[in-house]
Each structure stands twice: as C-alpha cells, then as structure tokens.
Specification:
Chain A: InterPro entries: Peripla_BP_I, SBP_2_dom. Chain A: Keywords: Signal. Chain A: It is found in: Cell envelope. The complex is a heterodimer of chains A (about 425) and B (about 325). Chain A has 13 helices and 14 strands. The longest helix of chain A is centred in the first third of the chain and has 21 residues. Chain A starts with a helix and ends with a helix. Chain A folds into three domains: about 35 residues, no CATH class; about 170 residues, 3-Layer(aba) Sandwich (Rossmann fold); about 130 residues, Response regulator (Rossmann fold, 3-Layer(aba) Sandwich). Chain A is of the alpha/beta class and about 425 residues long. Chain B is mainly α and about 325 residues long. Chain B has one domain: Orthogonal Bundle (ABC transporter involved in vitamin B12 uptake, BtuC). Helices cover about 70% and strands about 0% of the residues of chain B. Chain B has 14 helices and two strands. In chain B, strands 1-2 form a two-stranded antiparallel ribbon. In chain B, helix 4 packs antiparallel against helix 10, helix 8 crosses helix 10 and helix 11 packs across helix 13. The chains are: A alpha/beta (about 425), B mainly alpha (about 325).
C-alpha cells in the first residue's frame, strides 16, 4: 500500500513542470518499491524451475580445473556414478554415450579452513517461481540446522542485480559464498571473492571461471539422453515422435535437447516429426500440442519433453482431442504427476528437486572445515516411471510442488501454500 | 469474421487503401499456408486458431479503446495473469466459490483501470510510463503475495468454459464474438462511442462541444482493464493450470493486433472490428509458422515483420488526412 502514499505525495506538486517531475519521480519510486518486494518482470524469460539454471548451465561445456585444485587425480565422483547408475534405475542401458570429461578433481580446501560459527553469503535467483522459492527456503532451513548464519541476496532473476548483490555480500564479512549464477557477468564479482580468499560454490548453473571451489548441479545432457533412450524403448526403436523443449537458447533447454539428439541419432528408424519450444508454459504447451495434433493426427507415437510443465498442456490437448495419450517424458512436478495418474499416462520422470540447494550449503561448510570437496558435485535425482508414481505424487498438495519434497518441513510447505 | 461487427472506419479517409491491408495480409497468409502448411486448413486447427485469436481479440478490443483516446495500456498482460491467480487462490479450485472469485478479479481490474486513469487523466503522466509502472507494480504485488507460488486451482467450471467446444468451435470464440460485438455496438451506435472518437480525434474541440473528455478517457482505461480480466479468465480456463506467466506477451500482442487492424496511435481512428481482424492475422501467422515446423527465431522474426509492415503502412496513412480533418 506504500505506493499509494507516493501517488498522494504528488498532490503537493501544482505547476505542470513540477507535475511531470513528480510523475517521473513517482514512477521511479514505485519501481524501486517493487524491486524491494522482489518483483521480477524479466522472469518472463524464466518461467520455470529449471530456468534457475538458465543462467549459464551447460554440462556439455567442460568444467575447467579449479584454480584451487591441488590434486590432479580424477576421483570416482558423483557424475560418473550418475552416468553409471541412472540408466539402470528404470531398466535402461546406456546406448553408448560417454560422460562429458568434466575434469573433475578433489579440491584441497585446507587454505579455507577456519573455526565456526560460519557466516555464508547466498546470492540466489530470488523467489520468482515455486521452484526458486523452495530452493531458497530449503537452504535457509538447512543452515539453521547446521548453526550457520546466512547472508541472503535475491537477484529477482536479474544478472545485473546479482553483480551488485555479490559485491554487497562481500562487504559483509562472509566466510564462504554460494552463487546461483544469473549470467556470465557475475564472473567478475566471483573472482573478486576468490581473490579475497573466500571459497565460492556455484549452485545450479555455470560461469566461465576457474576460481570457484566447486559446482553443484545436475548433468542436463544425461537428463536429455535418459529421456530419449526411454522414448526409444517405448516405441521399440522405430516410430514417430515430437520433441517439446523449454526456452530457446537457454543452456538447460539446449543441453537436454542436444543430449536427446545424440541418442536419437543412434536410432535411424525413429523419425522426429517436429521440434518446438514451449517456454516451459503449460498454456503454450497445450497450444503447440493442439497444433501438432491437427497436423499429425494419430501419427505421434511418443512425446519427448524436457519438463513436466508443458506436459500438463500436452495431456490436456490429447484429452480434448479425444485421442489416446502417448508415452512422454517429464519432471516430477506435482501438477503433472496428478494428471498422469488420473489419466493413466505412461511417463519417465527425471527429477530436478530444488531442495538440492542444501547440498550446496554442505559443500560450502566442508570447504570451511578444510575437508576436500569435489570440483563438480552432481546432484542425485530420482529417476522413475509411472509405475512408481504413487511413491511421489501428492494428490492433496499444490500443482506447484516439486517432488520429492521429503526434505521440506510441513511448516515451510504450509507457508508457501504448497501442501 | 462475423456479421454484426462493423468496422469503425475513420470517416475522414473511408476509402483509404490502408484499411485493406489486414485483409490483404490475411489473404497472403492463407495463400502461403496453402503451399507450406496444408494442415492449417483442417477443421481442428481452424478451431484452435479461432480460440487463439479470440482471446487476443478481447484484449485487443480493450487496447483499441485506449488507443482511440490517444493512450496505450502496457498493463493488460499483468492484469490477465493476476486475475487468474486471484481466481485460483480465492476459489481454491471450487466451483461454488467461482462467482466470488470472479468478482474479486473484476475488482482488481477496476482498481488497475482507475489507477491508470488517475495517473494518465488526473496526473497527466504519459500513458506509456503510467501503465508500464502499473504493470511492474502488479507483477511485484503478485510476487510478494504469492512468493512465486501461484497456488490454488482453476475451478472446473471455468476450465470447462475455456476448453469446451460447441459445434466444433471453442467456447471462447463465441464469447469473444459476443463481447466484441457489444463493444462495437457501443462504439458505433451510442453517445459513448461518439464521445470516445471525438475525445481521441480532437480533445480540444470535443471539450468545447461539451464532451466529458476526462471521464471518457478514464472510462477507456477502466474498460480495457476489465476486458483484460475477462481474457485472463478465459485463457486460464483454457490452460487449466495456474500459470504464473499466463499473460506474458499479451500487452504487446494486443497493441500489435490493434495497429495491424489499422487503429491509429494518434487516436480517434480505428475500431474493435479492425482489431479483431488484426488478432486473426497475428494468430494465423504464428499458427502457420508452427505448422511449417520452422525454428523459434523465425516465429519472432515474422511477428516483428508483420508489425513493422503494419506500422509502416499506417504511418504513411495518418500523415495525410489527419490535418485536413
């Protein structure tokens, strides 16, 4: 309601010139007020969860060896484990892809070791969607458990704001810095932090720098490839499919798509009828699918999709067209899981749970304790099909809940009206 | 598109060739579609297309009213989204609370419309700045209120309305035709319509001849916001999901539809029937590109090109007859 006060203030300006000044001032004031309320007009580019990593995440790009690395020895890391294990979780075998050589090393963090209690800076996206809201709250809740103080700065999804945020955090005497990068421009402040001897953890996203101690993320190439191999098995290695991606040009989107195309290239009898972007919007997903149905009718044997968001629209489009719903790939978003259960949809879901932000905090704390950390921590995610949906879906909870949500407290879920 | 909707042509240049451009554009798109995307003409696709155009046309009708009084409204997209979030949160997905929830959403539309009107008419803030500020304000309010989590649910009655079909044609198409018909009749046959055109065409002269220019202008902004609420509810019903980014893009698309239809940025010339045609042109072009399987970038390029051509044609038009009056 403060903004109305601003408008009231304008009453004191009477001459026309003063009025126009008042107009401009009030607009600026309104904008900055809104900024304080963590608005995000630019989040139109980042309508989903996965867009948190929209910043610059690309697992295909090699992670350069960390400057802080002292041991060149490649460890049996979580990424290799994921590449070895995730296929088998749903009875698939790797069709012959090799994990990206990320040059993952164990980083000696002895130079950062210090006594607690710790204060850790967290430069995050800010609660611009349900995924990001849970992401922030999980990390804060975990910090309370660990007795770590968090200095938080939400960037409203904006790269330029995050540059300032990090600089502000550095002025606050933090022991470590966790950054969810909003774009390449945060490279400078991250390197400044590293130069000050502060260990930096990149959490969901990548920046072209060698100065971070670790990066905690999910290999999206693996996600895309898992989706594609499952689709290939569903159609028996021969059939016609469509591919629905998120936001054109965003690394999460393009990395998943590229991983899928690598797999589909191994199946000459699979014809990709169409590739479309849906901006991770259920509404656009429905519109696009309706058009594809009008064009291809019953030809489509399966739908490769990089997120559960557009799948919500896909299922609705099929239902309204009165056609049998084909197998599709998804993320465990509750709204999708509910629809899939109600309509008996066959699916493969690969998770991207926002609660992995707690792993970023664990990594930062390890660094401060002087324990070696991996330069890349692959987030372990649930991989499951419709057969196991009942273990994940929460019919009584909000469509916006990302699952599994076991790590989240009931109070938190209730306060966000998620459950 | 429909009988009963007449074009509100500028009486000063009735035979202007530019008023034909949206029709020519549509014909061009149909011819291209015939070769590149024959599935465009399948009944199922034409039904989808009519719904896409219908929702945009409702927003564009409101936008047209504002353009007629020399304004612009950049807050319609934000209003669409927030009205859907309000309905979802207030009703919690229950049909029996739907009426109250729609009432709350309309109240939001009223508040935003009044706020825009106060800024533009009362405080003489340029419409572009005023409505942009309102849009940012609404998005900020929504984020602060929902913490990024829209929550609630779409009542099934609304979902039914947004996605059902009657005689193969989507329900929103009928609704849009009725709404636009009503607005067109008001513009054409009532004193309100005449006031609107005269207030936009020549505010000074209108004021001297007793037209309540300030009230008429304010009314245009309020009507525009209310129509945006209406479109937001239909789109939300169609989506069947509380999409926090529902109305994104509709502010610029609605302006584009109005401009392509031939409504002038300079006020006083244009009409909702034309904007309906503009909406059909935009929706057809985008629909056709998706069907051709072209890349995402081409979709943006085509949309930009259509608007550029429309504006170019229009600017050459209003530089001539405007002064002579």
């Amino acid at each position: 309601m403060q903004y109305f006060i601003v408008i009231e203030r304008m009453q004191m300006f009477n001459t026309r010139r003063r009025r126009s000044i008042a107009g401009v001032v009030s607009v600026l004031a309104i904008s900055s007020l809104i900024g304080a309320c963590s608005s995000d007009s630019s989040s139109s580019d980042a309508p989903t969860a996965a867009a948190v990593s929209a910043a610059a995440e690309s697992s295909a790009a090699p992670v350069e060896e960390s400057a802080a690395a002292v041991s060149g020895e490649v460890s049996a890391d979580a990424l290799s484990t994921a590449w070895a294990d995730d296929w088998g979780k749903v009875g698939l075998t790797n069709p012959g892809l090799t994990p990206t050589d990320a040059g993952i090393v164990q980083v000696d963090t002895a130079q950062y070791a210090k006594e607690g209690p710790y204060t850790i800076g967290f430069a995050s996206q800010g609660p611009t969607n349900s995924w990001a809201a849970i992401y922030d709250e999980t990390l804060k809740a975990h910090a309370t458990e660990l007795g770590v103080a968090i200095e938080y700065a939400g960037a409203d999804g904006k790269e330029d704001k995050q540059v300032n945020d990090i600089n502000d955090l550095l002025a606050k005497d933090i022991d470590a810095l966790i950054v969810t990068p909003m774009g390449p421009a945060v490279k400078g402040p991250i390197e400044r932090a590293a130069a000050q001897g502060i260990p930096v953890i990149l959490c969901t996203g990548i920046v072209d720098t060698t100065s971070n101690v670790s990066r905690v993320d999910r290999d999206n190439r693996l996600n895309g490839a898992l989706f594609a191999e499952w689709i290939a098995q569903q159609v028996g290695g021969k059939g016609k499919i469509v591919m629905l991606s998120g936001i054109a040009g965003v690394p999460t989107t393009e990395t998943r798509k590229a991983g899928a195309e690598e797999v589909f290239a191994l199946y000459p009898d699979i014809e990709i009828l169409d590739k479309q972007y849906t901006n991770w919007s259920p509404t656009e997903g429905k519109t696009v699918m309706e058009q594809l149905l009008a064009k291809y009718g019953d030809e489509i044997d399966a739908v490769w999709s990089d997120s559960g968001l557009q799948d919500i629209g896909v299922i609705q489009a099929y239902k309204e067209a009165g056609k049998a719903i084909p197998p599709m790939t998804a993320e465990p978003l509750n709204g999708f899981l509910k629809l899939a259960k109600e309509n008996g949809v066959k699916f493969l879901a690969v998770g991207y749970p926002p609660s992995h932000s707690s792993e970023c905090l664990d990594t930062a704390v390890s660094a401060l304790e002087g324990k070696p950390v991996s330069s890349f921590v692959n987030v372990g995610v649930p991989v499951f099909t419709d057969a196991e949906n009942d273990q994940f879906v929460k019919m009584e909870c909000s469509d916006d809940l990302w699952l599994p949500a076991d790590l989240l407290s009931k109070d938190l879920l209730a306060s966000l009206k998620l459950c | 598109m429909s009988a009963g909707i007449r074009e509100q042509t500028d009486t000063r240049s009735p035979r202007d060739w530019a008023s034909l451009t949206p029709v020519l554009g549509l014909v061009a798109i149909l011819i291209i579609a015939l070769f590149l995307a024959p599935s465009f003409f399948q009944p199922a696709n034409l039904g989808n297309l009519s719904r896409q155009a219908a929702i945009l046309a409702i927003v564009a009708a409101g936008q047209t009213l504002v353009l007629l009084v020399r304004g612009i409204d950049l807050s319609v997209g934000a209003v669409m989204t927030l009205s859907m979030v309000i309905v979802a949160r207030v009703s919690e997905g229950n049909d029996d609370q739907l009426v109250g929830a729609i009432g709350a959403a309309l109240l939001l539309g009223l508040i935003v419309g009044v706020l825009n009107a106060v800024l533009v008419v009362g405080r003489r803030v340029p419409p572009f700045v005023a409505t942009l500020a309102t849009a940012v304000l609404i998005v900020g309010f929504q984020t602060a209120w929902t913490q990024g989590v829209p929550g609630g649910g779409i009542p099934s009655a609304l979902a039914e309305l947004g996605s059902s079909r009657v005689l193969g044609i989507p329900a929103p198409t009928y609704i849009a035709l009725i709404v636009i018909g009503i607005v067109a009749i008001i513009l054409k046959f009532t004193i309100l319509g005449r006031w609107l055109y005269s207030a936009g065409g020549n505010p000074e002269a209108a004021r001297m001849s007793g037209v309540p220019v300030a009230w008429v202008t304010a009314g245009a902004y309020i009507a525009c916001s209310l129509l945006a609420v209406f479109a937001g509810l239909l789109l939300g019903g169609y989506a069947g999901y509380v999409d926090a980014y529902l109305g994104v893009g509709y502010d610029l698309d609605s302006i584009a539809a109005a401009v392509i239809g031939g409504t002038s940025f300079a006020g006083g010339a244009g009409g909702v029937g034309r904007s309906l045609l503009g909406a059909v042109v935009i929706a057809s072009a985008l629909n056709m590109i998706v069907l051709t399987g072209a890349d995402e970038w081409l979709q943006l390029v085509v949309k930009g090109a259509i608007i550029l051509v429309a504006v170019a044609v229009q600017t050459t038009r209003w530089s001539r007859p405007r002064r002579g009056g």
